[in-house]
Amino acid sequence: MRARYSVNAVGARVDVTDSASVAAGADTAVAQLGGVDIWVNNAGIFPSVSLLDMPDEVWEQVFAVNSRGVFLGAREAARRMSATGKGGVIVNIVSTAGFKATAPGLAAYVGSKHAVRGLTKELALEFAPLGIRVLGVAPTYVPTEGNIAATQTALEAAAAAGVDVTQLDVMQQSMIGRIGTPDDIARVALFAASDLSIIMTDSTLLADAGETI
Ligand SMILES: NC(=O)c1ccc[n+]([C@@H]2O[C@H](COP(=O)([O-])OP(=O)(O)OC[C@H]3O[C@@H](n4cnc5c(N)ncnc54)[C@H](O)[C@@H]3O)[C@@H](O)[C@H]2O)c1
User: Fold this and answer.
1) Which residues of the chain have a pLDDT value below 50?
2) What UniProt keywords are attached to this protein's entry (predicted)?
3) Model pLDDT, residue 209
């Protein structure tokens, strides 16, 4: 990636549920890249378990990664952005599951993503005086490593619950005539992170090919 884009890139292994790990990742950015200007909270998990069978630990782990992880990431990023006085941008990857129910088995996921959408607004409110904008990006279904496997499990959970959900329902019918790609979502995240969205904070941008119409 460094050579392809002629940029300096550094990798750091971070567990977003562990505040010390998140802080260490942010410190790596400061030490090796000179600071934090843009922070994207992207990590997420989406196990499919029906509500009747949902173990406490699964619920808690989904919220730990998807919601608490966003809080920890935003806090550590904002501490370092405010220290320089330059501000910055925080982008939270939400989901159309932050706007609606999706499929049986995804209650924890839907709850955690609604939480991120709300948190995005409050982060925007509290960080505005620091010159930090906070935006959400809410993708529709996009085939990624994790989501391809999760879709199959979601279909099985729906069938077990007696709900007739087809693969097409789970993947959502796209109004643009094709399924989205990770690059489609990255473009919206880039818009959110760049000065093109300079007037925006607190919004969660639907990158949903019309799914929530
Ligand atoms: N793919 C989709 O259709 C879709 C749709 C809407 C929203 N999203 C959101 O996009 C984001 C990325 O999802 P994806 O589809 O690329 O999934 P993915 O499973 O392919 O990637 C998720 C990544 O999160 C990482 N992760 C999980 N737990 C972590 C932890 N504790 N600490 C650090 N990293 C951790 C995983 O290692 C993995 O690399 C998620 O927030 C997801 O909810 C995806």
Assistant:
1) none
2) Oxidoreductase
3) 94
